[in-house]
Amino acid sequence: MKRMTQMAHEKLSEVIQLGDRVVDATAGNGHDTLFLAQRVGTQGEVAGFDIQPEALHATGLRLEHAGCRGPVNLYELGHEKMGQVLSAWSGTVQAVVFNLGYLPGGDHHLITRQVTTLPALDAALKLLLPGGVLSVMQYHGHPGGKQEMDAVLRWSEKLDTEYSRQQMEVEHPQAPKLLWIEKLNL
Ligand code: SAH
């Protein structure tokens, strides 16, 4: 499991620079939000979304404990709203990160679902700069996970040629799969 999230962070490190704008679509316990905030530094901007107050609380604490001072805005809203909330960021974002599934340590029945995940992915693409990336960690071991992952894959197969797409996986039945989409610099 660790391997895939590390792989995502390594790939994100290659494309995110100090001063960039980035989005964490599923703040959860805040690991990705903190990672993003550290990559973009105090001149960058981070927006984080989650529908669970406890997730945003955990994320806020993690940032505080790490002494993170960069501009991070956390929204207690579904990520499907990111297009409206971040309309001023359209075409300016370097990376949008999704970590699907349930909140570790939280309610396992409260999961991300394709009905909101797919509109959120569409909204995320509109935010990207040319050369910007969408990183989607997909879990399939929990009830509903496989359906969501299949729906996300079908969605990604229909993307037009403006985007490149890779699906990364490791040989482990429970390991999440990483979907990596790049808006090409055409
Ligand atoms: N499965 C990952 C963690 C995922 S956390 C792991 O094992 O590390 C997923 C987060 O998405 C949860 O905190 C959940 O509250 C959040 N979430 C669910 N639906 C959402 C939505 N529509 N918009 C934003 N966040 C959502």
Give keywords.
186 residues, 6 helices, 7 strands, binds S-adenosyl-L-homocysteine
Would you write up a description of this structure?
- The protein has 186 residues and is an alpha/beta fold.
- Helices cover 37% and strands 24% of the residues.
- A seven-stranded mixed β-sheet has the order 3-2-1-4-5-7-6, with helices on both faces.
- The chain binds S-adenosyl-L-homocysteine.
Given helix and strand content, the structural type is alpha/beta
Q: In whole angstroms, how far apart are the ends? A: 34 Å
- Main-sheet strand order equals 3-2-1-4-5-7-6
Helix content: 25-40%
- DSSP summary, beta strand count: 7
Task: Provide a brief overview of the structure.
By secondary structure, the protein is α/β, with parallel strands linked by helices.
